[in-house]
Specification:
154 residues; mainly alpha; Butyryl-CoA Dehydrogenase, subunit A, domain 3; 8 helices
Length: 154
């Protein structure tokens, strides 16, 4: 399970950690610790991939909540810095540009973006988030528009 799903979990954690690799690796490790501990509760009603994504999302959201509650002033300072920072578009690595733009999205929008980038089907995204596929399509469309505005400084 670890080998089969490590890449997608790390990719999703990178989205939540705004591209900070060390933090994403820590979150990925935490996800697989939780998978191991909860393995006996896996009922196979969904695919293992969907189950692991759900654990990843919950782990990342819990991490963000704890981080916010620990030091709200630091997060506000980072948010202000992130809001005023220019997104580089002059030959900079496109991955860095995308992560910088994703950092300006809401948590749920970063989650959806990470899932889409990882090639997860809209049906699976709907199952992970507990929403309809139509709602997923609308979210993806709106997120694309927001990312374009951020990347192109509109």
């Amino acid at each position: 399970m670890y080998q089969a799903h490590y890449g997608m979990v790390l990719q999703l954690c990178l989205g939540f950690s705004e591209g900070r690799e060390d933090q994403a690796k820590d979150l990925t490790q935490e996800v697989f610790i939780r998978v191991w501990r909860k393995l006996d509760t896996f009922r196979e009603e969904a695919s293992a991939k969907t189950w692991i994504y759900r654990i990843t999302v919950n782990t990342c959201l819990n991490f963000l909540k704890k981080q916010k509650s620990r030091d709200r002033k630091l997060i506000e300072a980072l948010r202000v810095r992130s809001d005023t920072a220019e997104t580089p578009t002059d030959g900079t690595d496109q991955t860095e540009v995308l992560y910088a733009a994703m950092a300006k999205l809401s948590e749920i929008d970063r989650l959806v973006t990470g899932l889409v980038l990882d090639g997860v089907s809209q049906e699976e995204i709907a199952a992970i988030l507990g929403i309809t596929e139509g709602n997923v399509r609308v979210k993806i469309h709106r997120i694309k528009k927001r990312l374009q505005k951020v990347i192109h400084h509109e």
